[in-house]
Amino acid sequence: MRLSMILAIAGTFFLAALLCLVTAGFAVTVIEDNARSSVLREMDKEGMTWTEVDADGLQVFLAGVAPSEAKRFKALSVAGRIVDAARVIDQMQVEDTADIAPPRFSVEILRNDSGISLIGLIPASMDREALLEQMQRAAGTGDVTDLLEAADYPVGDSWDVAIDYALRALNQMPRAKISIEAGRVAIITMADSPAEKRKLEDSLKRRVPSNLRISVDVSAPRPVITPFTLRFLIEDGVARFDACSADTPQAQRTILAAARAAGLEGPADCTIGLGVPTPDWGKAAALGIAAVADLGGGSVTFADADVSLIAAQGTAESRFDDIVGGLEGDLPDVFALHSVLPPPEVEGAPTTPEFIATLSPEGLVQLRGRVGSQRLRDTVDSFAKARFRSASVNNRARVADGLPQDWPVRVLTGLEALGFLANGAVVVTPDELTISGLTGRQEASAQIAGLLAAKLGEGAQFDIDVTYKVALDPVAGLPTPEECIAQISEIQETRKINFEPGSPNFDANGASIMNDIADVLAKCGEIQIEIGGHTDSQGRETMNEELSQSRANAVLDALRARRVLTSSYTAKGYGEAQPIAGNDTEEGREANRRIEFNLIPPAEPAPDPDASGLESDAQEGQEDTAEGEAAEGAADEQD
User: Which class would CATH give 350-477?
Assistant: First the structure.
């Protein structure tokens, strides 16, 4: 082959190789430029302008200083969305942690009756063991739960100041939430009374470091007052409160204004609490106080919705009738007024010593009149407080000379007789003992007569005017079992017991409904009741039966928690077996999901085997007698 031909062929291959190289280089450049520009656009779109992107063939290099490790990782993820993640080469650095702001250190101290819990982030330089030791001393026998985390960052002096103040405050509060930050402490706690609240607030705000900001929130729940009581008196021209309760600050101002208008002087206060029988309490109390002022003396006592108005001795009957009639018309309908006008003294007549004890419908006892010695006065006071509760006795009896020798026996016997009444009075004189009032005991008159005869002697003079009232009878006044079930059904007509879906837990309204049902059952005594749980047909039958049983048990447990005697109650789950509506509509399914209270009928007595035998013998005897009579009749006919 000629040399020229060889050179031509070699030249052709060389040109082809050169062209391939040029084409490949151009292709690689295009790929690199596309990859670099695509990644850069995505980085700018994500706001990561700090990244530097380069490409070398199929590999993409990421460089730059990331603000944080999370940002660095995000940059790698963004690049991995554009090119294969295996082609991404990480050459990024992370910003020095010394230049990053330290975290916000904070601690929450939660304290209750069971112990103390610590939650939050504290500096690593803090003496954690010393902190826990101080917490354990504050908790005493309670537990200290450490849920703190630590971080190695510097913190200012205001952190230690806040911790020291919080520890001092913690020792003053058995229940509290204390939030601590550098230079700031926030305290949320409770006090048992308004006075205790003021005292605690003053103590916490005392000796606060100048570089520390504090926030103190102390709540004092209103007390529950039972019965809700107010007693206002005017004696010897002096007005005073023996007890004063109000439901709102407005009612408190109304009551005190009425008392001042009636002659009250000096400091006075009304306890604001829970348990008021009606929102009209302040208005009614002001009316009662004004009535005492119009009478010129006496007392008015409110105990829930019962009102007792007792006039001063010597009040004119016509004036008394006018004032009582006006008060009865002005009082809201919920209140029941009981008024007493003591008999007038006869001018010029010889003074007859007497001892009078009155028992009001709300259980308040007033003792007045004469006793023979201070020792007898103390004995009478102790006896009355033991019999009628110490807080309800107001002893105004005075020591006097010249009383009969048997006066102590007559006075104490009269008080003992008064205990048979729901409300009334006993009047003791040297010649007679009179007791009158209302009672819930059918045999009260006979029992009082027997007591007086036994203690005073058969020849003693006494007068008993006692009236039995069924409403006051603790047994006869109870509703029948049928009435109890009817009252519960009436509650459920408008306020159905509902549960969370698929759960035995009551919904948001369940607690208030159970409270009302418990109030009814508490008055019903020991009756046999079945609490039945029912569901709709959705779900498996066995699951529905278990769910209905759990819900019936939940109702029974809720009644027990409300101190209802449930020893005669049973709980049974019927599941979907007893529908009262169709399960093909939501309304029907809602009706089938229910709790029912049903009376359990008393069990029939088992037959007495002996009685059955006697009955059989008697029947056999009757049959034998009948057969004998028939045989005799046949013989007579034959004769």
Answer: alpha beta
